[in-house]
Design goal:
The complex is a heterodimer of chains A (356) and B (802). Chain A has 356 residues and is mainly β. Chain A is built from 1 helix and 23 strands. Helix content of chain A is 4%, strand content 54%. Classes of the chains: A mainly beta (356), B alpha+beta (802).
Chain lengths: 356, 802
């Protein structure tokens, strides 16, 4: 999930960009070098529950949940809960001198509205952090908290809450499958230059809970996908954005696929996850992503519907968004919303698009 | 026809340019002083509001610790985790070398987006703001002072007031050694609707609603009220000029009015023409006045700015920007003032019988009724002044007393004068003397306004002068006591301070630490000082009320001294126990005077200061040393110890500085005083001018009976002098009354201190001489005219029907 590395970096970058200095360094020095920060190494085994918590020696990290939900009357919703950590310097410090910056994004998508909220905090004071035993990642009154009973893994059962102007949610997530280590046992190579991240997912959550939209509580249920990733790697200067998919097939299988756009032909990568959690990376050229419909979103044209083909698995599906205008109007704006798909297979998922 | 009629009316001014000048000057002066004062006030208020909204996020609610010791990071995190959208601020005074700056450490990530300071931080680059090296966002002039005194990056922002710096909260925490204690939390306007009450979550903090006005604007309120009062006084005095000038022009144009009416101009048409004429004149003169007011204000503004900075620490620019609120109100007030002061004359025109001749005798009779009315009103106002002075409380009541006293005395003046005149007339034997007094009485109605103006100006002068002089005397004496130490030194950091503490006792008879913390006591952010047990304090420190063993109690750590301001405001009473920050109590064992400080202050023993507030900066010291050793020690401190020259201040220069601030405070008052007197002098001049031309019909018969013109002129001079003397004598008790109200009521309310009143008769003589000169000058033109008038002119009086 290279895309999210970029998003994390971009969030940090935009904090300075919105300050009117898109060329500035510091935060945005993320784009230039990783001096002093730890670098992911191949063969380093991930260890749980400690790796569920923060890794302040690495520059960026996130806890990223997207959920496809449905109410009793069949109405569909999408929910996003994201906590980014972006370090100005490696390590932690007591009090306000802590160099860790935390950013939270939360959203609910309905078929006619995108509810968005953003939170910023610095570490060291308890306003935001991610700790283990018990596991909790939080920023202000938003939380992702383990309610799993030992000896189960702390991420097995989660309570997820967030709120913003006119919306809020409180969801229970319960996993029905194992954690999925991406790449080589969690070491995920991102480019030919050897840039990499530590990366694992939990795509098997069953969700139930309550969402509040415009003052009305709605009981919902569905499925959710959690991504955990941390890294210190710089980004490629020529990459302009990406289109990223996470799909839940009705069969219980999952697919993660993305396309990085650059000034050349771009880069497509994908990973097939079986219903029991086994991952199969799809080789280059095994996945085709074609935009089939553009929509005008926040003053720009965006490909909101796609055809995804995986010939090797005889897969040909067409996705469509729940709401064309799933625009995240955060300090780093991007498109992120629930989708459904039909074709040789059907299901639901999430689409994220940046850089348009 | 109408146009011709209007032209005929206006032609009067071409023939009497001096009258036009008087009227225009009157309106312009009244408007100028009034709008000048308004301009100063408007500028200062705008500056407070700007500073508050930037420095204190004045538009937002704030959360503060109840014990004044700051809010813990845990409490902050707890509130955030409960959903409270609050942002921490760590602030306090800090010295970069010799430059004192107010540091305001903000947390840019959680600071509400609506806040102005956000544009300060986002306009600078956030990464620089958060960088380890640190970034100070300051005004251009502060940046100039700071360069070379800090390794931190400096960024200039127009929005930051002088002597303040924004920086990241982490840097502020470190520089101010706050140990994560948050000064206050700014509450964002947008909050979750289902928030738990703050007191339930954290009983140790409390939510402070948005103040209606910033702290500093409340502090300086009395200062501005003072200025406003002077503005009104000048305005009223200016109106007297307009009144007499308008009266004159109407009186002299009676012939024209009559002719115009006879030619068929209807009364409404005539009145409308006059109204248009007056309005045009008022607008023109008002405009002139506003421009003049701008110059008055610009001249006074630097002094006002220095005073406000010295007295209240309020930063106000020494320059003035043109604000529509004061020049528009200036024009309006010119119009309204002209309308008020010419209403009577216009009314007369309305009732004017077309063929009526001048009836000066009737004037006098009519005014007898109004004289009685005036006298009654004057007595009632004086009564009201007494009532307000005794029963009223608050600054507004104080100024109410002042207003009633002045106005009442002014209204009483004509009645008083006419009683005196009647009595003098009765005892006079010679016909000419009798005529002289009777004629003076006849002129009273015409002159009374000018005399009232003179009385107001004179008594204001005496009153304010007495107050300022009393204050100066007390203040200088107090300064001598208070600044007992011969040298004052400031260490640049704790290391140097430690060396100083070891080094100094060898050379100085006693070393007096001047250590203080800022804290919240009884709901007020004030300074707590610690004193050592030293004869310097026991012998010199001026205590107003005290236990006989007050200094022992303070030394033992149980007692505290509070300043007069706290005591007078009733925040703490003598003998009361006050809760001190850090959860301990102190007993008030004494009250000391503390002039020039708008805030409360507490003094405790040095040991308990250090015990309760271990982080107190220990940098400043007062040194007692024999007078002949002062320069020697000063030299040694620089050459042997290595202290910088700027870190040492001797007693004399400290006194000089304090006195300068004091003098500056009253410069503006003094200037306004002089201006008011000038306006009153002008009122006198224009009234006499008015009268001199109306009075010819009364003087002509005397001349016909054989009194020489020269003698007639001399009588005019003597008359003016007699009236001036009577007014001046009346002004002395009124002025002393004014001074008493200022010292006993207004000062106590406004500043929180009471001063003994001292009388300075020599000052009155000076004032009397100046007023005498003004009176002589004002009679000069009319008397000269009378002395040199041609007999033909006097003869024509008898021929004139008028």
């Amino acid at each position: 999930m290279n895309a999210k590395i970029m998003l994390g970096a971009l969030v940090a970058l935009v904090m300075t960009a919105s300050a009117g200095h898109s060329q500035s360094q510091g935060f945005a020095g993320l784009g230039s070098d990783a001096t002093g920060f730890a670098i992911p190494e191949r063969g380093h085994p991930l260890s749980f529950p400690s790796d569920h918590g923060a890794h302040p020696d690495y520059r960026i990290e996130w806890w990223y949940v997207t959920a496809n939900l449905q109410s009793a009357d069949g109405k569909r919703y999408g929910v996003q809960w994201t906590l980014f950590r972006s370090a100005l310097a490696p390590g932690t410090a007591q009090s306000f001198a802590d160099p860790q910056i935390w950013i939270g994004h939360a959203a609910i998508t309905t078929d006619n509205h995108q509810y968005v909220a953003e939170r910023l905090a610095r570490g060291g004071v308890g306003q935001a952090n991610a700790t283990t035993q018990p596991f909790e990642a939080w920023i202000d009154d938003w939380t992702m908290k383990s309610v799993a009973r030992p000896p189960a893994d702390e991420l097995n059962e989660l309570l997820l809450t967030a709120n913003g102007q006119d919306f809020g949610y409180s969801l229970n997530l319960k996993s029905t499958g194992p954690l999925v280590l991406q790449g080589d046992r969690g070491f995920s190579v991102k480019s030919a230059d050897g840039q990499a991240s530590y990366y694992y997912s939990q795509p098997f959550y069953q969700v139930d809970g309550v969402i509040t939209v415009s003052g009305a509580d709605v009981a919902v249920s569905g499925q959710a996908w959690l991504d955990r990733e941390w890294s210190s790697q710089p980004l490629a200067a020529n990459q302009t954005g990406w289109d990223w998919f996470s799909l839940h097939f009705d069969t219980g299988e999952k697919l993660m696929a993305f396309r990085l756009r650059d000034d050349k032909e771009g880069f497509i990568s994908a990973n097939w996850i079986s219903a029991d959690g086994k991952t199969t990376p799809l080789s280059k050229g095994a996945v085709h992503l074609v935009s089939v419909r553009q929509a005008r979103v926040n003053g720009r044209d965006m490909p909101v519907a796609w055809r995804i083909q995986v010939p090797g698995r005889s897969l040909e599906i067409t996705t469509r968004p729940l709401f064309d205008q799933s625009w995240m109007s955060t300090s780093t704006p991007y498109w992120e919303g629930p989708i459904s798909f039909q074709g040789s297979a059907s299901g639901v998922g999430y689409l994220e698009m940046t850089g348009y | 026809m109408r146009f011709t009629a209007f032209a005929a009316l206006l032609s009067h001014w071409r023939r009497k340019p001096l009258q036009l000048l008087t009227l225009v000057t009157g309106i312009a002066l009244a408007t100028a002083l009034w709008s000048g004062v308004q301009a100063i006030n408007a500028e200062a208020r705008a500056s407070y509001a700007r500073a508050a909204s930037v420095l204190e996020q004045g538009g937002l609610r704030q959360i503060v610790a109840k014990d004044g010791n700051g809010i813990s990071i845990e409490t902050y995190a707890k509130l955030r985790r409960w959903g409270w959208n609050v942002s921490p601020v760590i602030e306090g005074p800090y010295r970069f070398g010799s430059v004192r700056i107010k540091l305001i450490g903000i947390e840019p990530l959680s600071m509400p987006r609506e806040e102005q300071i956000n544009s300060i931080t986002t306009a600078s680059d956030l990464s620089g703001f958060l960088s380890a090296r640190g970034l100070l966002v300051v005004s251009a002039s502060t940046a100039d002072k700071l360069r070379g005194n800090t390794v931190m990056k400096i960024k200039v922002s127009e929005q930051v007031p002088n002597d303040a710096a924004f920086l990241d909260i982490a840097a502020a925490d470190q520089l101010l050694k706050a140990n994560g204690k948050i000064s206050r939390l700014v509450v964002a306007p947008k909050q979750r609707s289902d928030l738990e009450a703050i007191e339930r979550l954290s009983p140790e903090v409390s939510l402070r609603e948005t103040p209606d006005e910033p702290d500093v604007s409340r502090l300086t309120e009395s200062f501005h009220l003072n200025l406003t009062a002077f503005g009104y006084l000048s305005f009223v005095v200016g109106l007297f000029i307009v009144y007499s000038a308008a009266g004159l022009t109407f009186e002299q144009r009676r012939g024209t009015f009559r002719t115009l009416r006879s030619l068929g101009i209807s009364l409404p048409a005539l009145t409308t023409m006059l109204l248009i004429e007056l309005a045009a004149l008022a607008l023109l003169s008002g405009l002139l006045g506003v421009i003049l007011g701008y110059f008055v204000a610009s001249t006074l503004m630097p002094g006002v700015a220095t005073t406000l900075r010295g007295l209240y620490g309020a930063t106000v620019p020494g320059t003035l920007s043109i604000r529509p609120e004061w020049w528009l109100t200036g024009l309006l007030i010119a119009l309204a003032g002209t309308a008020i002061s010419s209403a009577q004359s216009l009314g007369r025109v309305w009732k004017l019988p077309i063929l009526a001749a001048a009836q000066p005798q009737a004037w006098e009779r009519v005014s007898k009724k109004s004289l009685i009315f005036q006298t009654v009103a004057g007595c009632s106002l004086l009564g009201l002044a007494m009532l307000l002075g005794i029963a009223g409380s608050g600054l507004v009541a104080g100024f109410g007393t002042l207003g009633c006293l002045l106005l009442g005395a002014a209204l009483l003046l004509p009645g008083l004068l006419s009683i005196i005149l009647v009595m003098v007339e009765r005892v006079s034997r010679a016909a000419l003397t009798q005529w002289f007094w009777a004629d003076t009485r006849l002129q009273l109605p015409g002159l009374s306004l000018a005399l009232m103006a003179l009385l107001l100006a004179l008594s204001a002068n005496i009153g304010v002068g007495t107050m300022v002089s009393s204050f100066r005397l007390t203040f200088l004496g107090w300064l001598d006591q208070r600044l007992a130490a011969e040298l004052y030194v400031t260490a640049k950091d704790e290391n140097e301070a430690k060396r100083l503490r070891e080094w100094l006792p060898k050379y100085s008879t006693s070393v007096l630490p001047i250590w203080n913390v800022e804290a919240d006591v009884l709901g007020e952010q004030l300074q707590i000082f610690g004193v050592v047990d030293d004869p310097t304090y026991r012998d010199h420190w001026p205590l107003i009320v005290a236990n006989h063993d007050a200094w022992d109690e303070v030394a033992s750590g149980k007692g505290a001294l509070i300043n007069e301001q706290m005591w007078r405001r009733g925040d703490a009473t003598f003998g009361a126990t006050i809760p001190m920050p850090g959860n301990w109590d102190a007993t008030v064992v004494g009250v000391y005077s503390d002039y020039g400080n708008p805030k409360g202050q507490v003094i405790i023993g040095i040991d308990s200061l250090v015990a309760h507030y271990p982080d107190v900066p220990k940098l400043r010291y007062g040194l007692r040393v024999a007078a002949e050793q002062v320069s020697n020690l000063r030299q040694r401190l620089v050459t042997e110890f290595g202290l910088t020259e700027t870190a040492i201040i001797d007693q004399a220069s400290l006194k000089r500085q304090s006195t300068a601030v004091f003098e500056q405070t009253f410069t503006v008052t003094g200037a306004l005083n002089v201006l008011t007197l000038a306006v009153a002098g002008f009122a006198m001049f224009s009234s006499l001018l008015t009268l001199s031309s109306i009075r010819l019909p009364q003087l002509a018969p005397l001349w016909a009976m054989g009194v020489r013109r020269r003698d007639l002129a001399l009588y005019e001079v003597v008359r003016t002098l007699a009236l001036w003397l009577a007014t001046f004598v009346t002004a002395i008790p009124v002025g002393l009354g004014l001074a008493w109200v200022l010292l006993e009521i207004v000062n106590v309310e406004a500043f929180g201190w009471r001063l003994p009143m001292t009388v300075f008769p020599l000052d009155w003589l000076w004032l009397g001489a100046v007023a005498l000169l003004a009176a002589l000058f004002s009679i000069l033109v009319p008397a000269r005219r009378l002395a040199t008038i041609t007999p033909a002119e006097l003869l024509r009086i008898f021929a004139d029907e008028r």
